[in-house]
Amino acid sequence: MDRYYKKKFVPLALPALILFVLVIVIPFVMGVIYSFTGWRGTYFVEGEHFWESFVGFENYINAFKTKKFIDAFVYTIKFTLVAVIVINVVSLAISLLATSLNKGAAAYRTIYFLPSLLGGLALGYIWQFIFEIVFSKILFGEEGVISIPALCNMTQDNTKALFALVMLVTWQLSGYMMIIYTTGLNSIPRDLSEAASIDGASALQRFINITVPMLMPSFTIVFFLTLSRCFMLLDQNIALTDGNFGTRMLATQILRTTRDSSPPDYGLAQAQAVIFFVLIAVVTLFQVSVTSKKEVEL
Amino acid sequence: MLMKGRRKAGQIVLHIVLLLIAVCTLLPLAFLLFNSFKSNNEIIETPIAAPSAWTFKYIIRAAEQINFFKAMGMTFLLTAISVGLLILISSLAAWVMVRSNSKLAKIMYLGFTAAMLIPFQSVMYPVIDIFEKLGLKNIPGLVIMYGGFGLSMSVFLYHGFIKSVPQSLEEAAIMDGANIFQVFFKVVFPLLKGTTVTVIVLNGMWIWNDYLLPFLVIGNRDGVKTLTLELYFARLTSGQYGNPWELIFPAVLVTIIPIIILYIFLQKYIITGVAEGAVKM
Fold first, then answer.
1. In principle, which of A129, A135, B74, B254 could form an S-S bond with B224, CB 3.0–4.6 Å?
2. How many Å lie between the alpha carbon of B195 and the closest alpha carbon of chain A?
């Protein structure tokens, strides 16, 4: 039987392979090559003249000399660190609350999930209004309900905008992550917790010693999803601050590098993109290997 | 009795907390709804109140400005064709990859999985460059690109599920003389329904809302754009005259209404799709 399938392998897998090579493999390899060349504007030297445009590591050195890139790098890491923690705490808390409900949890979950269906750009515009008008004038302004300067004009300050972005992304993604945690929680056998309860374990002890270890597979996935999504965040960043006040995330920085100089410096942008890839690959692989080691088998 | 009473009180407190979270979730969307019926002045002066009059003036004007019906039709077609292509190609590939169990299949699987770590930004400039040279910097090209970018995850999901599907049914069909496509579409594909829902939901959500790829491929050229792209350009041009929220709010509203309607009818499938997708990863 294996032979039968092997004979059909090439024709059936070929469309996928062609798409994959055309859209991912070739562009990825070319991208790495481009990062070592002075690719500017729409003009790229190919064929025999290729070596004339070869610049070695110049683009990489320039990238680390570009203040905007360094700032975006640091900003992305700061944002990701805060956002991953906040999203996970919020989504796990909501999921724990909803699963301890006797009935009616499904209706709440339906509501919580809604924002994650909507586009980052559209939501970003709504939140821009909330931060600029509702927060700054009605709720936390000088004449507002309660004056909290830290929550005013959040989109016009580097540090405040980071937390504004965290709020927006938490509001948007928590429902999605909650669904994944809920699936994990529901797959934990009830008798484990009941047995521990009879043995006199407190709710906190049960949570730490039963729920957390049993939930490890969900942690692996949610950490992976939140990490990669926060690292690659673009739409919300553009909608909320458009990268002004030094709030560019790496994805925005790579997109805007070609606008920062004339003619557009694709070589420099591409070098930043390669660094971006290495950063994401290293961090997510490290995370997956650490959290999946902690998964327990039943 | 005391235990029972305490438990009941606990449930009520839980309901109150969950209700508050639900209100926080829905409030921004309520602002959106209310402010879509107001003039710019009214929005700034009474941003959180219900509108003084429920006039559809601003919604109609915004819908006209972003070419709502054209853009929605285009976004729908783009999403549907891209997702259809993805389902067909990735399910077939994943199936023969699992069944043939050859070295080549394993290498391919490894390649697909590894590619999930590649961020879009790392390949976007070369992709656009290549597609421009191929004369595909257009809407058909966009479908092909979505096919390529969604492939890794879709193959991964199908691959994971097909491994657990017994081979005996297919073998029986092959013995009966069915050809390979009959075997796949009549025997195998119906069994993959759950995974197909996940593939549709995860890719559909992403392609429908995507901003960057249509921006790079279509940009601000004349002609039909996607909804997200229309919204982006509406915001960009409106920003030149301060903040005409009377355009932005109704424009955002009309772009998200199709998704909300879809969600109301298909919420069960959408939520299961997301949950199943996570389990298989």
1. B74
2. 16
Which residues, at least 6 apart from A270, have a Cβ–Cβ distance to it below 8 Å?
A: A31, A34, A35, A39, A59, B125, B126
Collect all residues of chain A within an 8 Å Cβ-Cβ radius of residue B171.
1
Class in CATH terms, A67-250+280-293: mainly alpha
Whether pLDDT at B16 is above 90 = yes
Question: pLDDT of A254-277, one tens digit each?
Answer: 999 988 888 888 899 999 999 999
* Domains identified in chain B and CATH numbers: 58-280 (1.10.3720.10)
Using the Cβ of A110 and the Cβ atoms of chain B, whether some distance falls under 8 Å is answered with yes
Instruction: Compute the nearest-CA separation of A111 from chain B (Å).
Output: 6
Name the one residue in this structure whose structure tokens are 């445009």.
Answer: A53
Q: What is the pLDDT of residues B204-249, one digit of tens each?
A: 999 999 999 999 999 888 788 999 999 999 888 886 666 688 899 9
Q: CB distance from A90 to chain B under 8 Å?
A: no
Count, in order, helices (H) and strands (E) of chain B: 14, 0
CB contact under 8 A, A114 and B29: yes
Does the interface predicted TM-score (ipTM) exceed 0.85? yes
| Residue-wise pLDDT tens digits, A63-100 | 999 999 999 999 999 999 999 999 999 999 999 999 98
Interface check A2 vs B, CB under 8 A: yes
Is A224 an interface residue toward B (CB < 8 Å)?
A: yes
Tokens of B186: 């009549």
Chain B contacts of A8, Cβ < 8 Å?
96, 100, 180
Q: Which amino acid is at A175?
A: G
